[in-house]
DNA sequence: TCATAAACAGTAACCATTACCAATAAACAA
DNA sequence: TTGTTTATTGGTAATGGTTACTGTTTATGA
């Protein structure tokens, strides 16, 4: 008898999703907040966080996690790979993707391996010129 | 004339390194703190953080920054791959490693790609049995 | 139009990490 | 061994990103 919880398409949620889809920069929650505030000046940061989580859970956006630093979000949910700048944390899209080899041979004692993914590291242009 | 900064092998730094090498669990800073405190009860958490950073910078340990809210540390610096439990964040070592394909073809506009790495996700036994 | 409860704005709390500073102790020279 | 220098420490406060709380608003279906 568990009542299916409804989700409502609020103006806030819609604008967050739109802004995220209009951009290729993999913004942090705070950056999304800044973007969205231009259209909804009274939105609160908590609302941004809540909706980013909900949108990621429903599969409408991607949540890019890296331990200890800020999470980043991606409105492009088609499969692609990312580079992370080791200096500033900025994230970019990898164009010609590298094919992930067969991982069925991978074993880890005490773990059941479910998936694998290639992560790239590098330096973004801004940090490179700053060097 | 910049004076080369010396680094001193303190008791605290040595015990942190030893404990980390004695263990295969990829502990968080807080877990390292707990381990080390059994031998040095008066050590402070700040000292643990500071030394973990210094040891990682000198290449004596690894700092694992892959997803989760806390960073984890590894006393085994020989090249190997990791799995992360998506439920609890625990990290394990992958035995037969999957060879990373040639990544020289990978392009990312605005980035200089320097390295690539395969990251595994899965479930640890504790979480699997809890399911 | 009304009733319901999901979602909101605003703010406080939380937690991992970093910064600060007076006191301590490695390391090296005398 | 003793003294001097200064990197490092313990203790604690501050920071920054994220989450939780609460009374009010508003999307949604009757």
Please explain how this structure is put together.
Two copies of one chain form a homodimer. With about 130 residues, chain A is of the alpha+beta class. Chain A has two domains: about 80 residues, Arc Repressor Mutant, subunit A (Orthogonal Bundle), CATH 1.10.10.10; about 55 residues, Ferric-uptake regulator, C-terminal dimerisarion domain (Dna Ligase, domain 1). Chain A is about 30% helix and about 20% strand. The first copy, chain A, is built from four helices and five strands. In chain A, strands 4-3-5 form a three-stranded mixed beta sheet. In chain A, strand 3 and strand 4 form a beta hairpin. In chain A, helix 1 crosses helix 2 and helix 2 packs across helix 3. The radius of gyration of chain A is 17 Å and the shape is globular. At the A-B interface, strand 3, strand 4 and strand 5 of A face strand 3, strand 4 and strand 5 of B. Chain A binds a DNA duplex (30 and 30 nucleotides) through helix 1 and helix 3.
Number of strands of chain A: 5
Helix content of chain A: 25-40%
Q: What integer value in Å does the Rg of chain A equal? A: 17 Å
First-residue to last-residue Cα separation of chain A: 60 Å
Which key features would you list for this structure?
Dna Ligase, domain 1; Arc Repressor Mutant, subunit A; globular; 131 residues; DNA-binding; 30% helix; two-stranded antiparallel ribbon
């Amino acid at each position: 008898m568990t009542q299916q919880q409804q989700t409502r398409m609020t103006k806030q949620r819609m604008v967050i999703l739109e802004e995220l889809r209009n951009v290729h920069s993999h913004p942090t929650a705070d950056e999304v907040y800044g973007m969205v505030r231009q259209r909804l000046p009274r939105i609160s940061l908590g609302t941004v966080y809540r909706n980013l989580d909900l949108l990621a859970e429903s599969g409408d956006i991607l949540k890019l996690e890296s331990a200890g630093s800020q999470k980043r979000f991606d409105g492009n949910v088609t499969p692609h790979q990312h580079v992370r700048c080791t200096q500033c944390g900025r994230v970019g899209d990898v164009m010609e993707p590298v094919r992930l080899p067969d991982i069925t041979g991978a074993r880890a004692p005490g773990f059941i391996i479910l998936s694998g993914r290639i992560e790239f590291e590098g330096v973004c242009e801004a940090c490179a010129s700053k060097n």
